[in-house]
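Field notebook, page 251. I keep forgetting to write these up properly, so this time I am using the form the group agreed on. The chain and the ligand, 2-phosphoglycolic acid, are recorded exactly as supplied. Prediction of the bound pose follows.
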Amino acid sequence: MARKTIIAGNWKMNLLPAEGEELVAELKEQLQIRENLEVVICPQMALVPMALDWIYDSVIQLGAQNCAEKLSGALTGETSAELLKVLGCRYCLVGHSERRSLFNETDDMVGRKSQVLLNMGLTPIVCIGESLAQREAGDHFKTIDTQIAAVFSQLDQTDWTRLVFAYEPVWAIGTGKTATPEQAVEIHRFIRSKIKEFAGDVVANATSILYGGSANAVNAADLLGESEIDGLLVGGASLKAEDFSQIIASF
Ligand code: PGA
């Protein structure tokens, strides 16, 4: 079976309600339904309940940007995966590089959050990728290997089939410096080979691996043209309806 293509917009900490509503309204007008394509928006938490109304009657799915490692308890400021489910989220980003670098999220936490989401029936989009220093030191494969191993070691084996990965080289995020399709494909192949080691051929071949990092309306077609790239995680360019629609239309 063909892998699902996922184009997800990571709004990060941007957009007020009126802006989000307008963006989704414009997207709905421009969106063409394509078989095997999932379009996801990931607004900041307080917008999530509103966004469920905005996407009503469309193919757009809702995702969150983060969740807690536990379902409830004394975790001031955190959000439960159970609440995300109740609010209509189907996806949640986990281990975004901003969470890792600014909020000290470790590989093990990323694994635990993924399991909590899977328990709730949500799909974690597990973000992995190397920093510039790691790439320059030739450590990019090792870094990614460690990140993947931590996730698989935390998960119930029965859930291995339900992950989505996003390869986001840290040096490409928000910098306007996109990985070339060749660079992305090289890493995507490596990620798939690692999934194969843990979970076997069938799971590896069925797992969608997205690329993220300065994806935009200009480079989306080249990236999506690669059979190893099963979609995009888009930051800045997902905040403009025209750009995000063009990216979606590039598939
Ligand atoms: P960017 O962000 O597209 O603005 O580089 C991608 C991301 O951080 O997910």
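OBSERVATIONS:
- Residues 5-12+40-249 form a domain with the TIM Barrel fold (CATH 3.20.20.70).
- Strands lie at 5-10, 37-42, 61-64, 91-94, 123-128, 164-167, 209-212, 231-234.
FOLLOW-UP: compare against the apo run.
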